[in-house]
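cache lookup: miss for this entity combination. No prior model stored, computing from scratch. Input as submitted by user K.M.:
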Amino acid sequence: MKTTKIFVMAFLFLVGCVMGISTSAAAAYPDRAIEIIVPFGVGGGSDTAARAVAEGLKPLLKVPLVITNMPGGGATKGMLYVAQQPADGYEVLAITTSHLIDAVKPKTRAQLLRDFDPIMRIQWDTSAVTISGDSKFKTLADLIEYGKKNPKMLKFAGTSPGGWSEIQTVAFFKAVGVVVTFVPFDSGAEIKAAIMGGHIHGAVEELAETLPLIEAGKLKSLAVIMEKRHPALPNVPCSAELGINYTHGLMRAWGVKKGTPPDRIKYLHDVIKKALDVPVYKKFVQDNHLYARQGYLGPEETRKYWDDEVKFFTEVLKDLGYVK
Amino acid sequence: MWEHYWNAFAIVLLPQNILAMVLGGLWGLLAGALPGISTSMGVVLLLSFTYTMSPITAFCMLVAAYCGGITGGSITSILFGIPGEPSAVPTVIEGHALAKQGHAASALWIFLLSSIYGGIFSVLVMMVATPLIANFALKFGPPEYFALTILGLSVVSSLSGGSLLKGFLSCFFGLFLATIGTDGITGGERFTFDTTLLLGGINFVTAMVGLLAVSEILIEAEEPFKEYKGHVGYRGMRAEMPEFSLYRKNWFNVMIRSPIIGTVVGALPGAGATIASFLAYGEAARTSKEPEKFGHGAVDGLMAAECSNNASTGGSMTILLSLGLPGSNTTAMMIAAFMIHGMQPGPMLLSSRPDIIYGIFVAMLLSNLFLLVLTIMAIRFFLELNRLPYSVFSAAIIVLCVVGAFGLQNSVDDLFVMFAFGLIGYVMRKFDIPVAPAILALVLGDMAELAMRRSLLLSLGDPLILVSRPISAVLLAAAVFSIVYPLFKKPKLLQGL
Amino acid sequence: MKKGEIALGAFCVAFFSFMFYEAVKLHGVGRFGEVGSGFWPMLSLGVSVLLSVCWLIATIAKAKGRAVEESSPEASAVAGRRRRKVALSIVCLLVYIIVMPWIGFILSTFLFIPAFALALEERRKSVLIISPLLVTAITILVFAKFIKIAFPKGEGIFAEFSRLFY
């Protein structure tokens, strides 16, 4: 019994300490570490992108910057976590297009447009239609012709069923009037291996990851999905010049919980904007070929961009039967 | 080619590179051995230090950290029974059982020698046969993955211990667990009951920590009070040096079969180390002269699993360097490292930057040798922890489990999953239901289901695709054989319910 | 033990049957050509139900074959004591996990260590006093400070308290 007493006393002492501290907290923002929540695992595209921005951001902040990965539930776990924290600007969520798609689904637990305010859009990636290097299809027209003659026989791989990967595959082919079979895989590496091994026809994937294999002739790109040709692949036509009205791309943005004081959002916006001009980040943009389209959008424009994208995704998801 | 190797040796043996390998290896050992930080996280944290280094120094450090992480995970597995990665499950089952019998040092020796040999073997294979392995790996489409996972699952009849019925019950329970969460083909939710808790499915590592480590602490809690954790082997590393004859007896298992399985399976993106170690472990169980020892400290099982597990590093690097495809999260981080230094891993790299590629081969070879020494030092430190009072030791293990379960996804939900699996594991052990088949099925079930449904998507519903391709037909035949064979060989297993 | 085994077998049958019923609802959800979301759950659960029924029957059959073993009062006292110890340690762990998001990792760990040691019948005062300090300090240093795992900090004043350390 004596030991219990000791513990009760120790506990009271600790509580006393805490009481003493809590009164002295009212300093200028930011006065403690800012946490970036990446709702994906270590080593993924979103993770490396966030780390690259953070690398440039760290020297500009007076406080530490912590990156926390919270994967799970198709990027919803991390989002839910930030939505449950106080709206004080210390928790920043790394947002991707998959959150916009989630906003469409009726069962969503935290809604991006309702629960979050954008700080800025940071990147706007480019996708490409990629097939095996020794494929019999020489141009996109060949592929479309085959696809129109054989509905569902074209099999295209992607990563997230019902998510961005499926939407961009199906929506692109719908724009050209082809019905494809979408085959979900677990990772980009598996998809590329399956294309090279001839197990699947191709994939609509972000361009940067496939470039080395395209340069080596193991894969080839039939079209980049953009308004203009991509500087890294000047010989590959873009979707706009082929008359295809589809130029959507993967977006990465940072946001905070709705209700965060505007001056804190402005502070974050300004300091992150500066971080995008740091050489470390510029090199990342160069290496990942993110320079083709302007990534940065201010908070207001980002909000408008989100609204437009959500409208587009609503239509596509209705078509696919995911949303009634 | 040889002159490339001489140059590479000359560069890698420069003092700063050796220092980088030692530091990277130590960091990797630490990251692997501590729960809550995975090998890939360890490499990520190291990455920001390598910005300013010369490329070859940076890769010496990262490669050593990668190999070290794989090795370090086994220390925790053997001494505390906490698995750090799914591939460590056989190590926990056999190695920790040996440790409980008082042969911790002996288990550590066996693990160390087998895993270093496996690592070196795979590097040597990688040096001569990179294009060959890469081409073979590309032949694996969804039907072949399906056959491979079924072959992995077929081990269950060898792992069932006393009762086949209970073994299979455990296995099918695991298969069910694997289907919980978001369906990888449709994206719909299964068995989540509208909560977020299970939305992401059951994380392997969290479930394993619960089933293996937490449940064991609970089982031990029943025993009468002990002042110190007396039963964990206290004999030093020197006293427990394994005899040479042990290796001569198992030469085929360790020297040939397991590392080949590891290298080849490790090269498959998405399968990797886990299937590799389970397959090698299963092969060892099937061919062992003492199959009844499996689950209770089988030396040959530990050897096979460790050897194959480490050999998968070479396979994984093969596919990364030749095609630029990351087979695991850790090798995905290597791609980031290449980009930082202005290179794109892919087929062109071998001709454009041979110095880096051959440098990495040599660095992997040497860091495996350095790790032999470093690990022995690290083990001494970890063995000291057994001096803690027993109750505190148990509490500290639980805290480590909590750190491990939480740290992987930074999610409190996972702690409840871990707790639930701790209870399930406790009940299973109480009623002599083997835990290993459930874990095996949990890890492989998900891959098997997805591979099968993917195959059917490819064939538009024709099931013949699963058996009509040569590689998958051979693998499936082997799986059927390995399920049926023990039934004939050891009919007594059918009795003892 | 036989009673327990029968109870567990019955529980398994009930649990797997319930889940099977849930799995049947998934039947028909899927893409064109493949077997759908429900196939694997129904397969694994169906076999699980069969196997647990076999197990239950076999256990009951065996229990009937043997006479009920009379256990001495001393033995049952020891068994009761064992069970209490396990139950206590399970409760400790559960409380630890539940309160962690509220009071933070550092405080809950500090309280858990001695509580769990007490549950394991540790009575050495020196151990009970020194070990929580030592284990908590090392854990925080290594995991929160050195490798920066973002442990729960707790709510309100507890968060302020946790921020002093990590």
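stored under new cache key. Chain B touches chain C through 65 residues (CB under 8 Å).
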